[in-house]
Amino acid sequence: xETILRLEDIRHRYGQRIVLRVPELRIRPxxxxxxxxxxGAGKSTLLRLMNFLEKPTRGQVFFHQRAxxxxxxxxxxxxxxxxxxxxxxxxxxxxxxxxxxxLRVRGSRNGKAAIRQALEEVRLAHLTxxxxxxxxxxxxxxxxxxxxxxxxxxxxxxxxxxxxxDPGNVKLIxxxxxxxxxxxxxxxxxxxxxxWQARRLAQRVALLYDGEIIEIATTDDFFHxxxxxxxxxFLTGDLVY
Amino acid sequence: MxxxxxxxxxxxxxxxxxxxxxxxxxxxxLVVSGMALVISAILGLPAGIILGxxxxxxxxxxxxxxxxxxxxxPVVVGLTIYILLSRQGPLGELGWLFTPRAMVITQxxxxxxxxIGFTMTAIAAVPAALSQQLRSLGATQRQIVLTLLxxxxxxxxxALIAGFGAIISEVGSVMIVGGNIEHKTRVLTTAIVLxxxxxxxxxxxxxxxxxxxITFSANWLLLHLQGRLxxxx
Lengths: 241, 233
Ligand SMILES: Nc1ncnc2c1ncn2[C@@H]1O[C@H](COP(=O)(O)OP(=O)(O)O)[C@@H](O)[C@H]1O
Ligand SMILES: [Mg+2]
Prior knowledge:
The structure holds two protein chains of two kinds. By secondary structure, chain A is of the alpha/beta class.
């Protein structure tokens, strides 16, 4: 099986507490992979390890068949992946220059058209010159998505991209994710606690519970033939952490 | 009240007569405090950034030392440098006592903790997760630090303003290590002390007005710069 990213023997602790234990996880190129699970399960931590933002206490993360650490990962490879965090941390600058940030650090000068296109995609082109401090939650989330999309990443990590958004914004963002995946071939790993969103977007779904992947399956199997009782409980809303 | 008005009038008169002695004093004040600001910024900004970003063993002690340094009595610093630079002192051979160099050293020491302390606070106020977000967007370590510095620019400028304000208006240490020698180490603050002692109150006030005007202009310039950098304004 072809993989773009692979976790092996991962064990991650904060202090004495093990918050993540993943013997193996493979991400396939071109897929949308969803990780669902209750809050505190370790979903955000998993994304940070996959994006090489944190070094796992034990185990290895492979990107394109080689194991790297946050330090050893070459900048060219790092620049092929990016994360949209749950909190849209925007710079105290205009919307346009926020979207330009990733291009600027790559030294690319003529990104005007790309920035415009990314902002149009999230329907915020009219706010290009506005200060990012004045945006609503939904707008900030979309700017945060636009500044990732503009980089045309090979691998895109999304941490609860639609948490706390109104239905209109949710729909828009889901369309954008689907389009990036279908048209640009972007591999997407998304974390969500909304199982219906996972069902709408992903080809494969994993349930992370208390730091462990207790079920991983195609979307169809995950929802129609869950193997683990905890998956069934999670789908009916009866699994609490 | 009259004496203040007289002083104000005299200040204007002095300024617009471009009195050579006065210009020399103003120039030396600006050069000494300006160089001290540059030196302490070169050392203090990186130190403040590191303290604001990193956690390591002994950091708490260092921070306590910085905060103590922010309240360092200028005369004590002046005295220490005086002893070090005096003829029998360990650095006596340099022959720097009673020269502008000695004044630059003491003022650098006085503004350094202010710049470190304010920079540290400003950088620490930037959300910690922002570094990770920037790294994830493809920024190198150097680009991340520059961006954080830019995000904390208001606080960093406040650090420079505090550092400059403290030393341009400081008299104790420059008096001790500079000696207030005419045409050589006399600056605005030491000149004010001298003229006050001589009973030339209106001249002393005139010098004070000029000192205030310089501080005000410097701050205005920095704030203007801050406004230019800040898209919110
Ligand atoms: N930097 C950290 N230091 C200590 N504990 C952390 C840190 N980040 C996360 N945790 C803990 O690790 C666990 C998993 O957190 P997280 O990955 O954020 O979960 P999720 O995203 O699924 O809600 C939680 O118990 C959280 O408190
Ligand atoms: Mg989370």
